[in-house]
Amino acid sequence: MNLHRTAVSLLVAGLLLPGAAGAGKQLYRWVDAQGKVHYSDTLPPESVRQGHAEMTKSGRVVKEAPPAPTPEQLKARQEAEARDREAREKAEEQRRRDKALLASYTTVGELDLAERRNLEAVDLQIKSYELRIKSVEGRLAGLKKQRDGFVARNRPAPADLNDDIREAQEEVRQLQSRIQEAVQEKERIRARFAEDRRRFLELKGLPASP
Predict the structure, then answer these.
(1) Cα 52 from Cα 3, distance rounded (Å)
(2) Residue 129, number of CB atoms within 10 A of its CB
(3) Which one of 26, 55, 83, 102 has the fewest beta carbons within 10 angstroms of its own beta carbon?
(4) Domain residue spans of the chain
(5) 3-state DSSP percent of the chain in helix, strand and coil, to 5
(6) Max CA separation in the chain (angstroms)
(7) What is the pLDDT of residues 51-76, one digit of tens each?
(8) In this structure, what is the dihedral angle of CA atoms 32, 37, 42, 43, given to the nearest 10 degrees?
(9) Do residues 142 and 114 touch, judged by C-beta distance below 8 A?
């Protein structure tokens, strides 16, 4: 350490000798790509990535600039920042949901009532789809009967009749698909209210429901 300080002092003294190049300028210490330490009154461009230190005329370090991060370090930092940002966003979303939950309900009974109403609304949709299917299937049966009449007389069914049959069959398929989506929606409603009840009891400091 003493030898190092002596070397720095001698170098500083050399830079400050009368007539020496760069006299009176700031002194820098920097490391090249091979790890060799350099002292100079000018800072080469490559030292920006390698890191450097600014020193006083007496050799005291007043400011240090760390080496630029490697691509791997930069990627790791960006990933860590992304995880932190995602965690903050989730926490903020949870605070918003908690606030809305407590503002919307005062008892678990109110949550139960809201769940029943949501499920009943979906049940009404399902019922309307089922009634529509029954109506379309009745019309479809009549269309097929007409087509069978043409077949029985060895005559081709009109093109518009076949089109009507295909359209009716497609409508039935679409209505059945909507019923399946409605059933899935009921499962989502139950899951959402189950989580809301759990969180509501937790926020209120009440025991969990059995």
Answers:
(1) 20
(2) 19
(3) 83
(4) 2-65, 69-104, 105-204
(5) 70, 10, 25
(6) 122
(7) 788 887 777 887 887 777 778 888 99
(8) 40
(9) no
